[in-house]
From TrEMBL:
The keyword Transmembrane applies. It holds the Pfam family 7tm_3. G-protein coupled receptor for glutamate. Ligand binding causes a conformation change that triggers signaling via guanine nucleotide-binding proteins (G proteins) and modulates the activity of down-stream effectors. InterPro entries: GPCR_3, GPCR_3_9-Cys_dom, GPCR_3_9-Cys_sf, GPCR_3_C, GPCR_3_CS, mGluR. The keyword Glycoprotein applies. Residues 173-423 form the G-protein coupled receptors family 3 profile domain. Belongs to the G-protein coupled receptor 3 family. It is found in: Cell membrane. This is Metabotropic glutamate receptor-like. Residues 427-464 are annotated as: Disordered. Residues 435-452 have a biased composition (Gly residues). Keywords: Cell membrane, G-protein coupled receptor, Glycoprotein, Membrane, Receptor, Transducer, Transmembrane, Transmembrane helix.
Length: 478
């Protein structure tokens, strides 16, 4: 290199650091000098200049909307190091503010629960595919099903047994039906105690003691039993069917003749009721033989991570088991409508009618709810239990609360009614032919004076009397 004389001395330190003719570095590591713009230039032991660098981030300028190089740092050499404004570096849009540094690789490693799927014709790269929720990762390219009643661990490398779910005693879905049933048991036992203590009073006798106790036992079974659901219903509605049928036959016969209808004695009524109940018992026994009681595990649709313990019966089988009781309910309702206009002394048929109407409403609401909640066993079981208890409550309150109220709070009304509130059916005196007023009294005068007596302003009527179940029924003679 040729330099002016005046520059020889100034250039000597730099020249001493330049390579010689053999390409060897003559200087020392860390040699430095100022360049033409008075910036310090450093050299390493190999003679490479350790120049500073400016670091730019090529991105959009959000103020102008243009893509620009934005300075975000400097490299000042080994000694002074790196000055970097990392907060100003972005790789995504303004909306996402992506701070993740992009990596230039063919395919990234798969995450937890993912396996590699190699594309056809490309053996070096792959795509990651997620396993199904019920599958675990066997190796880097294979998923496998955990199987029934099992679920993968969070790391997706193995499976564990799922806990079996069933109705818990401390669950709200169990506590509500239990509380309702306990209250019903207490009220039913109290009603039985009142009837037993006043067993010889007119109110209890007039209600038909034998069928009343049968009804109360059926109501109690509805609250107590955890199996054989149809038995309690068959006892209740079999007894009600027998009672409404007896009332209907008594007054139908009275309209035609004075002859006493057959099979209206208490003993006959109990036999008929037992026969109606036996049909349900036989059907239940056959059902138990064809489909023995057992349990099964079930997986709700779309929720394989749940295992539910349920009774091993089909919903259709349960519905079939209630068909006979539906027949009894329908028949009782028909008789209740048929006997709704009988004399006031037999106004129990009106309470029976109200019982049947309410029961029909309960079961019309129960059936769609029960079969529409198959995927929620708690709601389904709670609906069944509450519906059974409500049916028992309706029978208990509608049929027995008026009698218990009179026995406990109005004992003065607990006497035999002497007249029948009807222009066709009347309590007749001992003679076979008489006026309506009875005892030779004027028309419209009530001679009895007993509870339930009514004033009848109709002209005297000649009638033929016949004694039906303790009452003289008057059949009008035209």
């Amino acid at each position: 290199m040729l330099l002016p004389d005046g520059l020889k001395d100034a250039s000597r330190p730099l020249a001493a650091s330049l390579p010689n003719d053999a390409g060897e570095w003559n200087g020392q590591a860390g040699a430095e000098d100022d360049d033409l713009v008075n910036s310090t230039v450093r050299f390493d032991e190999k003679g490479d200049a350790q120049a500073p660098y400016i670091i730019y981030n090529y991105r959009r300028n959000y103020s102008t909307g243009e893509l620009q190089y934005i300075q975000v740092g400097k490299w000042l050499g080994v000694e002074e190091g790196l000055e970097l404004m990392a907060g100003d570096i972005t790789f995504g849009s303004r909306e996402t503010h992506d701070r993740v540094i992009p990596v230039s690789v063919c395919s990234a490693e798969c995450g937890i629960g993912e396996v590699k799927k190699v594309q056809a014709g490309d053996h070096c790269c792959w795509i990651c595919t997620r396993c199904e929720p019920h599958e675990f990762v066997v190796n880097e390219s294979t998923c496998a099903d955990c199987g029934p009643s099992r679920w993968p661990h969070p790391h997706k490398r193995s499976c564990f047994d799922l806990p079996v779910q069933h109705m818990q005693w401390d669950s709200l879905f169990a506590a509500v039906p239990i509380a309702v049933a306990i209250l019903g048991i207490v009220l039913t036992c109290g009603t039985i105690a009142v009837f037993l203590r006043n067993n010889e009073t007119p109110i209890v006798k007039a209600s038909g003691r034998e069928l009343s106790y049968m009804l109360l036992s059926g109501i109690l079974i509805c609250y107590l039993m955890t199996f054989g659901v149809g038995l309690g219903f068959s006892i209740i509605y079999g007894s009600l069917l027998t009672k409404t049928n007896r009332i209907s036959r008594i007054f139908d016969s009275a309209r035609r003749s004075a002859r006493r209808p057959s099979f209206i004695s208490p003993k006959s009524q109990m036999v008929i009721t037992c026969m109606l109940i036996s049909v349900q018992v036989m059907a239940t026994l056959i059902w138990f033989v064809l489909e023995p009681p057992a349990t099964r595990t079930e997986y709700p649709e779309g929720r394989r991570n749940q295992v539910i313990l349920k009774c091993k019966i089909r919903d259709s089988s349960f519905l079939v088991s209630l068909v006979y009781n539906m027949f009894l309910i329908t028949t009782c309702t028909v008789y209740a409508i048929k006997t709704r206009k009988i004399p006031e002394n037999f106004n129990e048929s009106k309470f029976i009618g109200f019982t049947m109407y309410t029961t029909c409403i309960i079961w019309l609401a129960f059936v769609p709810i029960y079969f529409g909640t198959g995927n929620n066993f708690q709601v389904q079981i709670t609906t069944l239990c509450v519906s059974i208890s409500l049916s028992a409550y309706v029978a208990l309150f509608c049929l027995f609360s008026p009698k218990v109220y009179i026995v406990l709070f109005h004992p003065d009304k607990n006497v035999r009614k002497l007249t029948m509130n009807s222009a066709t059916y009347k309590k007749a005196p001992t003679s076979s032919t008489t006026g309506v007023g009875g005892g030779g009294g004027p028309p419209g005068h009530n001679q009895s004076g007993g509870p339930g007596a009514t004033v009848n302003n109709q002209p005297p009527t000649t009638c033929t009397t016949g004694r039906l179940h303790g009452y003289d029924v008057c059949r009008t003679m035209e």
